[in-house]
Amino acid sequence: MKKNAFYAQSGGVTAVINASACGVIETARKHKDRIGKVFAGRNGIIGALTEDLIDTTKESARAIAALRHTPSGAFGSCRYKMKSIEANRREYERLIEVFKAHNIGYFFYNGGGDSADTCLKVSQLGEAMGYPLQAIHVPKTVDNDLPITDNCPGFGSVAKYIAVSTLEATFDVRSMAKTSTKVFVLEVMGRHAGWIAAAGAMASTKDQELPIIVLFPEVLFDQKKFLAKVDALVKKFGYCTVVVSEGCHYPDGKFLAEQGTRDAFGHAQLGGAAPVVANMIKDALGHKFHWGVADYMQRAARHIASKADVDQAYATGKAAVEFALKGHNSVMPTIDRVSDKPYKWKVGMAPLAKVANVEKMMPKNFITTDGFGITERCRTYLGPLMKGEDYPPYKDGLPQYVTLKNVAAPKKLPEFKL
After folding, report:
1. β-strand 240-245 against 289-293: which pairing, if any?
2. Same fold yes or no, 3-141+303-358+389-399 and 155-301
3. Which of 14-28, 153-167, 269-283, 296-310 has the lowest mean pLDDT?
């Protein structure tokens, strides 16, 4: 008997996560002989636990297609980390109960490292309980820190946004430097990996050298060395831009931006590296500054998304369904780079056991010896991921994004409290 599918979005959303959702739903609809309905979890895995399932069959083909150019999470996401099966077996058993009640045999979880871990555990539990369930992880993370895959859907568009923003802001500070601002500090996401910060350095090229300093999580912050670098660039150019990752930290492990609070996953709550760095420069060198935090804007900016990123996000969603139909379980579609020039890629596959709870950091040979810039090898890697434009349709000067109806499927089980 054909089974239904469950799809959910997890963690911080991106400019292209909905393109993956589009890939999953459109591909499933092409295989109506083997897949019935696609249910989406309202607010991620919480939707499965509370049996708050969205019936995507209530959406038109046109609305689902519009997901490809709509940013953020169309079905709602969540930051909810399920504990180990041993610590909270009841939650995992509840998932299976909901899946049984709604005849769900396919589980597609769209997220980052924590989501890969949840997907793996769900697969293991299904096997242990004798319930046939194929769990496929759909990769997504702006941090670009999932292993095995060459890059992660969501990252290319953030990289493009940060590179463009750094370029434009640097032009701005250059024009004001004579009598006003000499330093602009831009804070970007990246808790442990500096991929997003690295993209800021792409604004400076051989054809147009710009004074840009990057502060990576992978490089221990040396205040004296950093201030000397700022001083040298301001003396040479008259101004400079600093791109600082939120995960930049001192040798003792303390983040520049640490607030002393924790998020839902137990991670240190970050935010505020830019003003820390800016005031450090002001106090030591006396330069007037401005600072900004890219925050949600960097991951929501679908209007300037990378075409390569959009295509890859859709492709991994499509591949997830195709893998499931071929009988695969507990795997993740990957982006495999075939060549740099010309840039070519294909979709591969990785076992979740090798993906879950593994973070991919910036390689040492991607960071310049002084610790403040990127190498040519890094430029070769980043460049293709940012290329190409895939503008959404516009009306009256604004992008036309879709808001789905998100009709709830009738509940069949007793209420479950988290």
Report:
1. unpaired
2. yes
3. 269-283
Phi, psi torsion values for 405, nearest 5 degrees: -75, -35
DSSP 8-state class, residue 388:
-
pLDDT at 392 over 60: yes
pLDDT of 266 reads 56
Reported as a pLDDT band with limits 50, 70 and 90, residue 86 is: confident
Does the domain formed by 155-301 have CATH 3.40.50.460? yes
Amino acid occupying residue 302:
R
Structure tokens that stand for 214 in this block: 């990057």
Q: What is the pLDDT of residue 357?
A: 87
pLDDT at res. 407 = 98
Give me the active site residues, please.
143
C-alpha–C-alpha distance, residues 21 and 13, integer Å: 12
**Ramachandran bin of 339, using left for φ above 0, alpha for ψ from -120 to 50, beta for the remaining angles:** beta
> pLDDT class for 358, splitting at 50, 70, 90?
very high
Beta strand spans in 140-266 (E): 183-188, 212-215, 240-245
For the chain, how long is the longest CA-to-CA vector? 74
Burial (0-12, 13-18, 19+ Cβ within 10 Å), 5: buried
pLDDT score recorded for residue 269 = 53
Label the pairing between strands 398-399 and 394-395: antiparallel
Domain ranges of the chain: 3-141+303-358+389-399, 155-301
Angle separating helix axes 307-325 and 17-29, nearest 10 degrees: 40
- The pTM is what? 0.94
- Following DSSP, what letter does each residue of 340-388 receive, concatenated? TTTTEEEEEEEEGGGTTT--PPPPGGGB-TTSSSB-HHHHHHHHHHH--
Report the C-alpha gap between 120 and 6 in whole angstroms: 15
Q: Assess if CATH 3.40.47.10 describes domain 3-141+303-358+389-399.
A: no
